[in-house]
Structures are given as C-alpha cells and as structure tokens.
Amino acid sequence: MAGYWLFKSEPEVFSIQDLRDAPKKTTSWEGIRNYQARNFLRDTVRKGDGVLFYHSNADPMGIAGIAQVTREAYPDHFAFDSSHRYFDPDSSADNPTWVMVDIQLKSIFPSILTRQMLAADPVCSNMLVLKRGSRLSIQPV
Questions:
Q1: What H or E segment, with its residue span, contains residue 73?
Q2: 3 state SS of 120
Q3: From 11, 32, 82, 123, which residue has the greatest number of CB atoms within 10 Å?
Q4: Are 140 and 134 in contact (CB under 8 A)?
C-alpha cells in the first residue's frame, strides 16, 4: 500500500512550476537537513508513494499539486561538495548523513488548496502542516 506525504518548498526556492519545467517533470528532493525529515525519507518514504506538493512561506500557502516518489532514498551528494550550499563536512560518501529521493510531477491544481481550506475540511483538519509549530518539510499524511 502506497504512503502519502506532504513535501514543503518555498516557491522562490523551488516551486511546482519548476518541477513542471524539469526534465521528465522529475527532480531530486535534496537539501533536507532536519533529522526527523531525513528519517522519514530514509526509512519510510517508498517508490510509488504520493506527494502533496506544498508551497510554504507564500501567499497563499497551501497544496499546489501532486507528485509521486520515483526513486527511494539515496545519499544526498550535495553534502559532499564543499562549494554547495548543502555541504556538510561531517557527511561522507562512505558514511552519508543525508539522503534525498526523486519525485515526478503528476498534476498541478488549478488553484492552491489553502491552509484555510484544509483546516475547514473535516478529513484534512488534522494534518500535521496545520498544527502550531509544525515546521517539518517532509510530513506523513
């Protein structure tokens, strides 16, 4: 049975339109530097899982579309590159600290499903993204 996840990204950093414009509408989801989010990617996220692509720190904030995991966790090679913003001197190819997955766009919604819309829906109102203080960029749905 496939799992479902919410992946958050600030549109100025990487938007669902950027995913649409990527080769084969696919990208690596790199740069996760929170241990709990990393553990989800490494231990629980699986190929075929659904992804709700959430635009955070935006107006409006909300779910912009749907993607699917196409490759399970593998080492985040950006952690090994000292010139990259995701460099981590404590991570190595022999003992990687950080992982990434690949996702592929499935659809872009005609309009954002806003936080207010999610909160008003009885099925969605308990989503982690709506909880006060919830800042994880990778969340189970």
A1: strand 62-75
A2: helix
A3: 32
A4: no
Q: Which two tokens stand for residue 50?
A: 């659904």
Q: Are 64 and 92 in contact, with CB atoms under 8 Å apart?
A: no
82: part of which helix (H) or strand (E)? Answer: none
Q: Which residue is it, tokens 């912009």?
A: 64
What is d(CA 107, CA 70) in angstroms, rounded to the nearest whole number? Answer: 15
Q: What pLDDT is attached to residue 47?
A: 98
A 10 A CB-CB count for 91 gives 19
Residue 56: its H or E element: none
φ/ψ of 109, rounded to 5, equals -75, 145
Q: Which stretches of the chain drop beneath a pLDDT of 50? A: none
Cβ(62)–Cβ(55) under 8 Å? yes
The pTM of the full predicted model, rounded to 2 decimals, is 0.94
Partners of 9 in the β-ladder: 55
